[in-house]
């Protein structure tokens, strides 16, 4: 008799948004990512995708996600081909549907970073192979597995952790942390000016997830309420890729900069508090945008001060490394040649 296992849940599946996955499935990916990290660090081969070819389509720039897919594919025994808008017909001369059919016949899996969530969904509908969402305007699902790995490495568990996301409460990171965090039992707080509170579509999903997991979420513009007893203070850029409204965002979000006063306002003991950030982060003036914002608005750092970024609380580079291990887990679980027992 065929053994029922998670292979049937994962294999051949796309990963488009964490809302499509159960708490058990998300926890499985987190733990599998940790296992793959151990194998990598101990030089133990793990060629679960031997001989496969995967396509990496990026409509927006990327350092971590692109590198993660390339290194993870190589470690899994697969080859990766990167295509930017300058390299492909997609968008100019060819539709998503036609591109999906063509690439689906060449490749065993496709990563896509784009704008509208409907684009990656459309790609998945027509590709006939797993599609992994490498970020859309609405969600950043692969980032969630890395973030949960990082939290689990520090605290040993996810359930009951208080995580405060500080910044634009309507972007892909706020949406993802609120919904995915609620699924796995993290108490998520969105700390944001009222103008940037999330919409009902997202809070409805969080309500449903919290009802199942027992987590509680808070959406507030009050700094003390948002950070009190928090274990994770989480930052993201004030202006996301595809946006250009710097002046509006600087004015709205200036009071919400993550600084040492905010870390102290948590009241959390030092060894139970960390800073995380999906990166990139504007914590100094060593970038083009960082310099522009300093010249125009007099701010030397935006979402996080250099002091917090370099402090004992800083876990953002562990988190960045975990992008690679977690993306490897996602690809191997959905497309790898492995049996995943029921958990
Ligand atoms: N966090 C993240 O997605 O980084 P990249 O934009 O560099 O891929
Ligand atoms: N909200 C950011 C996330 C970057 C990883 C953006 O979309 O630019």
TrEMBL record:
Single GO term (MF): amino acid binding
Binding site for L-ornithine: 172, 236, 240-241
InterPro entries: Asp/Orn_carbamoyltranf_P-bd, Asp/Orn_carbamoylTrfase, Asp/Orn_carbamoylTrfase_sf, Asp_carbamoyltransf_Asp/Orn-bd, Orn/put_carbamltrans, OTCase_ArgI
Residue ranges occupied by any Aspartate/ornithine carbamoyltransferase Asp/Orn-binding domain in the UniProt entry: 159-333
Pfam families xref list: OTCace (PF00185), OTCace_N (PF02729)
Example GO BP: citrulline biosynthetic process
SUPFAM superfamilies: Aspartate/ornithine carbamoyltransferase (SSF53671)
Coiled coil: none
UniProt keyword Transferase present: yes
Protein residues bound to carbamoyl phosphate: 62-65, 89, 113, 140-143, 278-279, 323
Cellular component terms per the entry's GO annotation: cytoplasm
Catalytic activity entry: carbamoyl phosphate + L-ornithine = L-citrulline + phosphate + H(+)
Keyword annotations: Cytoplasm, Transferase
Domain Aspartate/ornithine carbamoyltransferase carbamoyl-P binding: 13-153
Enzyme Commission (EC) number: 2.1.3.3
Major site of localization recorded for this protein: cytoplasm
Cell location: Cytoplasm
Family: Belongs to the aspartate/ornithine carbamoyltransferase superfamily. OTCase family.
HAMAP family associated with the record: OTCase
The protein, known as: Ornithine carbamoyltransferase
Source lineage: Bacteria, Bacillati, Bacillota, Bacilli, Lactobacillales
């Amino acid at each position: 008799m065929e053994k029922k296992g998670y292979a049937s849940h994962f294999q051949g599946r796309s990963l488009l948004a964490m809302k499509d996955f159960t708490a058990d499935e998300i926890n499985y990916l987190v733990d599998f990512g940790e296992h793959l990290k151990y194998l990598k660090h101990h030089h133990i081969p793990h060629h679960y995708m031997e001989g496969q070819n995967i396509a990496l389509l990026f409509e927006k720039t990327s350092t971590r996600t692109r590198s993660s897919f390339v290194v993870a594919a190589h470690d899994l025994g697969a080859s990766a081909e990167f295509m930017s808008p300058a390299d492909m017909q997609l968008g100019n001369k060819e539709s998503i549907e036609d591109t999906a059919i063509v690439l689906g016949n060449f490749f065993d899996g496709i990563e896509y970073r784009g704008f509208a969530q409907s684009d990656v969904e459309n790609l998945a509908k027509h590709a006939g192979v797993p599609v992994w969402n490498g970020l859309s305007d609405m969600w950043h699902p692969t980032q969630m597995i890395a973030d949960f790995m990082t939290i689990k490495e520090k605290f040993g568990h996810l359930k009951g952790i208080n995580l405060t996301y500080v910044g634009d409460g309507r972007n892909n990171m706020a949406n993802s942390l609120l919904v995915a965090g609620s699924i796995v039992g993290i108490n998520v707080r969105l700390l944001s000016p009222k103008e940037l509170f999330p919409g009902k579509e997202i809070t409805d999903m969080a309500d449903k997830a919290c009802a199942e997991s027992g987590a509680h979420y808070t959406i507030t513009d009050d700094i003390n309420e948002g950070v009190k007893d928090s274990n994770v203070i989480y930052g993201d850029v004030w202006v996301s890729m595809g946006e250009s409204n710097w002046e509006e965002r600087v004015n709205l979000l200036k009071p919400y900069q993550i600084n040492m006063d905010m870390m102290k306002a948590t009241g959390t003991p030092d060894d139970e508090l960390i800073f995380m950030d999906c990166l990139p982060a504007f914590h100094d003036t060593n970038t083009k945008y960082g310099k522009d914002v300093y010249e125009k608005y007099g701010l030397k750092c935006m979402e996080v001060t250099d002091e917090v970024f370099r402090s004992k609380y800083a876990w953002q580079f562990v988190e960045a490394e975990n992008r690679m291990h977690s993306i490897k887990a996602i690809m191997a679980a959905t497309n790898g040649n492995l049996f995943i027992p029921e958990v």
